[in-house]
Structures are given as structure tokens and as C-alpha cells.
Amino acid sequence: MASWLQIPKNSPFSLANIPFGIISARSASRAVAIAIGDYALNLNTFASSGGFAQLPEIQPHLSVFGQPTLNAFAALGRPVHRQVREYIQNVFRVDTPFPQVLKENAPLQKDALVPLSEVTNHVPMQIGDYTDFYAGLNHAYNVGVLFRGPDNALQPNYKHLPVAYHSRASSVVTSGTPIHRPNGQILANPTATPKVPAFSPCKRLDIELELAAFVSTPNDLGHPVSINNAEDHIFGVVLMNDWSARDIQAWEYVPLGPFNAKNFATTITPWVVLLDALEPFRSAGLEPGDRDSLLPYLREKRAANVYDIPLEVELTNEGGKSSVIAKSNAKNLLYSFPQMLAHHTITGCNMNPGDLLGSGTISGTEPGTQGSILEQTNGKNPIKLADGSERIFLEDGDTVVLRGMAGTEGNYVGFGDCVGKILPAIKLDI
Amino acid sequence: MASWLQIPKNSPFSLANIPFGIISARSASRAVAIAIGDYALNLNTFASSGGFAQLPEIQPHLSVFGQPTLNAFAALGRPVHRQVREYIQNVFRVDTPFPQVLKENAPLQKDALVPLSEVTNHVPMQIGDYTDFYAGLNHAYNVGVLFRGPDNALQPNYKHLPVAYHSRASSVVTSGTPIHRPNGQILANPTATPKVPAFSPCKRLDIELELAAFVSTPNDLGHPVSINNAEDHIFGVVLMNDWSARDIQAWEYVPLGPFNAKNFATTITPWVVLLDALEPFRSAGLEPGDRDSLLPYLREKRAANVYDIPLEVELTNEGGKSSVIAKSNAKNLLYSFPQMLAHHTITGCNMNPGDLLGSGTISGTEPGTQGSILEQTNGKNPIKLADGSERIFLEDGDTVVLRGMAGTEGNYVGFGDCVGKILPAIKLDI
């Protein structure tokens, strides 16, 4: 697909993508936008100027584009998202059937097309609840080996259900927000007896490379979402860094799971990529042959239930030297987002528009494919960076960038950068 | 304190209480109200008719009483809550200094005082995040004995930090909402190898008797709430039943904690009792002598950091026969709400108005004082009910009522009933 708008060939936001987000720019208040090439199209401005005149179905809903979150747009449901995305693709095609809408409308281009460099992005949805799954089989295995050895690496439940925990919604931030190293309780000497914790900045600060899906349409309390309908309850996907304080986690997590180790920040990309845009990249997940042994409420019709999206983790030190420290792929998941949603709601749990489902850390099986630093270093075997320095965990001043992009040059469907810089722990007067 | 309004001597809503909630009644939309005796006072109606004319400080904020949640009122901060509560107490005193406001204003009494029997209650705050702690030492010990024996009942971290997990905000419901028994994965034979789950309605459905605190004023991401200020960030307290599916929990909870076992419903009382109303009932928590060994960020100035509130659990079968199956007390907590908040935010985690903090199950040490059925029966030793029947866990048709009331006759400060009836599991077409 070619556009009359100049779109760099390596842009994650090709005409094949059209992801949705929330921007503010030029002193205007927050509004819904899409990203295309190096620009955001402000859909509130676009709608106010009659940009959607050729799409009658959206006319009753134009107010959603002036909202400060995507919740109202998402709640309209997948058929509407599909119409709007395809309409916008048609508007931007080189052979657009509606040249008068934008291609030959210089004043509206000037008003509504804003360079991404001038845009402030915001967390795209008001997140009611954020659930983090553990569907990255290789990650679960790698971490299990570190804690329990290879024979008992995976718990008995792992291949029967997508393990998950509720996580913290309030501290989900958008790409670019700096992250203060958290303070907390750690064991200075984990093998000493009795175990006595110290108050300290986290010394084992880590990343987790994940995808995360936003819920669009809700289900009522007591009424599960069927695996066959689950995909239509998902609005789209972002890239996510679930920052993790491994030393705080190791001390606090028995018996109820991680808490303070995760609640200080989670970074997501600001542009939500619709499932329709990912559709061409469907792929079989891990061990599709085992799916027949799943309980029926988790069985999907298609084996190709995850997506082939190359992912990478880049670490840049305070001096500005960058190193790619891991390359992975989103197909390294044992469970799909529809399976996660079906499992989450099988008890009758109600989901709302804006609820966020993290995939869990996405690791490959080979060295250099792990989505967390812990898996690479085990806290002792350093990663060598391009500048000759080493990392066992993150240091103050480090900037981590996650990237994920499917497809081929000129037609990439990607998330954009998921960026966070580590600032020193805040000194507390206690 | 005596009132000109007739207040039953056994009412939890004496003039000493004045809890806040959200009601709808008489076809009016949701509004803020207080409960007093057998009535709710609609504060939106009251404010619109000049009821607050004698309280100049609240004049700029009167719109908060017309909101559908307490979030805006809570965000005004503790000094404002205190002024409003004390003003309302003055309005209702038999020797009110403002008799013209309500005592001698029959039309406003007719408009704004609604019998509780005609009121619909709603979840009082929009809950952003709900965190459930595990601060009931005796509960943690009792459950630990069942799982690991008496020598290792408590994990090494237990007396150093208030253990917690993030829980599910969307499924918090108000007292009276029926609860469908959840479906899920359970082990039909937990000791068989390999472990193979079955899909089934939960067979071990339980309660958890808890208090829960709502957050009022927020803190910014990266900026912990000091233990010395934490109390002023708490709006008030409700009674909570954290329904628990023990068989689903036993299978799913390793390694990341309870998930589906808790996400199907949590019931709270609709009236938020302010900390000021609980102030006369301050009491030392469990093991106050050990507090000096806590890390400084958790050390409170006062040993009397919890509340002496008698609690009880009543079970009524489908036939209508009631039995009190447990009596406990809110002072059976090792950590206070300010300590929970200080720990929750020590990493920099941001809290918002409406965030909910559960205490964890509140059990005593003697038989008949346990806040969960699991602790009483261990899944095999039945509780005998008044009608001669027995319970190992909850049965369909059972209604559970939690109650909590501090003080003495005529001056009770209580929560009202926290009620939930168990409906059969929904039959699913899978």
C-alpha cells in the first residue's frame, strides 16, 4: 500500500498499521489520534472539519475522538474500529477515493497532521485493572530453572492454564517517562539465618519484555467471555516493559506473589495497534500440538493464535552508547490473548474497556533471546555492552528501549519505541 | 450524644458515627449521603436547600455532593471531612445550634431524609486499584499451619512487612449483591500424579472477614507516603467479605499468588466510616512490643494503631435459619492501615482517591473466632449450624452476613450488614 504522504520506509507506522493513541499538541487538549509515518493525525480536528463525512456509520459517534482516553472509542466495538481504520487507510492511499478529504485539503493537513516530534503522548486508555500473565513459556522455564532446577522448572499447573497475577494499574506510564529506582526491603545476605531485611534502593533492577492487550467491550459480572468471542473483546496491543525489582521480589513474594517489586512503574508504548493490523502476522504459538489437552474453555479453533513479531531490547548507557542486549519474538507465547481473556473471566470476573492484559515476559530459548536481564545473567554472569562495560542488572543512567515490528520494509506494523531511563532512587528522610 | 431524630439504640449509625455513602432513591440520580439511625440524609438535596449555609468552608465544594461516587469529596482531604461530619452531628444534636437547618425544617426533612429501607446503595467510590493485605497474624498462622505445619507456619518476611497482593477492583460489589459460585479449574484428586485439572463449579467456596480502607488524598508516582502522614491519606473504613474459591486457589496460586480464586466477587458495606469516628476505639494491635524491630519507614508513633471493633459472621441457610459461626475483633491485626499505606508506597507507587486496601482476614486464636471457614473446618471438620445441619464450605442458597460494631448501646459506630447470598454456578455451554 502506497500513500501520498511521505512515510519513511523503516517507520513502524506504515499505511498497513494505523495505530490509535491519545495526544496533546499545540496547546490543544487531549484527543484521539492515529500515527502514520512521522505524523499524528488528530482525529478530533479531523472529525470537526468533516474528515469523516464519507463514513456515515461513524457520524453518531464523533464525540469519542474528543475524549482524553480511547475508552469510549474502544467500547464501540471491533466492527467500528475496523471501519475507521480502513477509512483512514483509504484517505491516505495514493489512489484515495476521497482526495478532497485530506490529500488535496492543505488547510486540514496543516491543522490535523502534527509531526510526531511536536506531540505529547499519553497513556492511551483509562486502565481499570491491569493483569499480568506469565504466558512466555521459555521465560517461565528459565526462571524456574534458576529457582528450582531443570527438573521442576515449570509448576504442574503451567501447561493447563495461563498463570497470572493482578498487578498495579495506577503506575502504568507512557514511553519516555523516567523511572526512579525503587526503595524497599531487601536481604543484604539472602543465605544468612535468621533472615533480616535492610532498607535499601533496589540493587537488582530488571526489565520484562512483554506485549499487552487492551480490552474493548465489557462483560457483565457472572458472565464469562467465550473463547470463541474473546478476540472481539480485545481492542489492540502495545509493547510493555514490566520493570521488576528482583531483590525486593525475592524477599516479599511468598506466599501471595510479587507486589512492591512491580508496583513502582510499568511502561507501555502510546500507540495501540489493532488486532486487524496484526492479522497478517498470525503464527502458531509454542506447542500447538498440546492444545488438544487443554480444557475446552481454553481451546481455540485456530492453531495460529499468536503473532510473529520480532522484538528487541536495547540498552544505552549514560554516555550514549547503545547495545542491543536481546532479540526475541512475540510468537514465544504458550497462550494467546483470547485464551488469557477466556481464563480471566471463566469465574465470571467482569472486564471493562481499558483493562490491560500483559503477556508475561517473552523469551526465546537461545542465549541473547531472553526478555529479562535476570535470565541472561542469573545475577552473576555479566552482559558485555558495546562500550566494553558490563551489566548484571540495570544501573542508574541506563536507558532501556524495547522495540517490536512485524512485516517488511515500507509496510511495517510496529509499536514504536518503549523507552525508560533509570534515575537514582529518591533519598528519603527516614 | 442525643439526637432529635429517633435513632434505634442498636443502630450501627448512631450520632457518633455519620458514615458516608452513595445512594439513589425516589428516582433521583446517585448522590452523596450519610446514614443516621434508620435514615439516609441525601447531602445533595440538603446542600441544594441551603443545609450547609452555617458551614462557610464547604461552600466552594458543594458540587461534590452531587457526584455519583465519593471520590471528589474524599479528595478534599481529612480537615474537610472532619468539618462536614462535625457539622452534621451538630445539625442532628438534640441541642443543635442550628435548629432552623433541619430540626425545625419539616419540608427539608421530607425531601432529604430518606428511610434506609427505600434507599439503593452503590459501591461508594470508583476504585482504581484494590490491594489486599494479609495483616491478620492469626489467620496467616492458622492457614500456614494447615499448609506447612506449626513450625513453618509464618514465612520469614511476615513480621517484617505487611504482605499483600494486588486484587481485582472491577468485581467489588456492594452488600446485598448475590454471588454466583464460580467455575474454574480444580484438582478432583489433589494427591494423584500427574496432576490433571477438571473444569467444575468451585466446591470449596469460602469467606474472608476483613476491614478495608479507602484512600482519600493521592501521592505522586515516585513519592512515598510517610508513616507519619499516612493516616491523613485514608478516607475511612468498610467491612469486606473477600470471597475465596479455595480449590481454584490451591491449583492456580503457584508461583504468582491467588488470581481466579479471588476475582469473581468481593463484597463491601456501602457506608464508609471515617477514621475520626473510629478514633475512640483505638487499640494496640498484636505484638506491639515487636514494633521496635520494624524498619523505620513502618514505625508508628502510637502503639494503639488499630481499632477495637467486635466482628461476627452469620450464616443463614436457604430455609432462613441463622447461626453465628464466628466472632472476632478488628484488633487482631499485626499491621495498621497507615503501615499498609507506607509500605505500599515506599517504592514510589502512586495511590489515588478510591484505592481500596483490604486488611486480610481477621481471626482470633480460639475456636469460633476464625474469619474464614477453611480455618474452622480444614475442609473436613464440619461446623454445626443452629438447624442441625453442617457446613464444611458454603452451599448454594447460603447467605453470609458480616457485622462489625464498636462502642456501646445508643452510641454504636458500625458498618451495617455486609451481605451476600450464594447462587448456583452458571451453567456454561462449553
Automatic annotation (TrEMBL), chains A, B:
Residues 133-404 form the Fumarylacetoacetase-like C-terminal domain. Mg(2+) binds at D242, K262, T266. InterPro entries: Fumarylacetoacetase, Fumarylacetoacetase-like_C, Fumarylacetoacetase_C_sf, Fumarylacetoacetase_N, Fumarylacetoacetase_N_sf. Residues 16-124 form the Fumarylacetoacetase N-terminal domain. Ca(2+) binds at D132, E208, E210, D242. Substrate binds at Y134, R148, Q249, Y253, T361. Its EC number is 3.7.1.2. Keywords: Calcium, Hydrolase, Magnesium, Metal-binding, Phenylalanine catabolism, Tyrosine catabolism. It comes from the Eukaryota. Pfam families: FAA_hydrolase, FAA_hydrolase_N. Its cofactor is Mg(2+); Ca(2+). Gene3D superfamilies: Fumarylacetoacetase, N-terminal domain (2.30.30.230), Fumarylacetoacetase-like, C-terminal domain (3.90.850.10). Pathway: Amino-acid degradation; L-phenylalanine degradation; acetoacetate and fumarate from L-phenylalanine: step 6/6. GO terms for molecular function: fumarylacetoacetase activity; metal ion binding. Belongs to the FAH family. PANTHER family: FUMARYLACETOACETASE (PTHR43069:SF2). This is Fumarylacetoacetase.
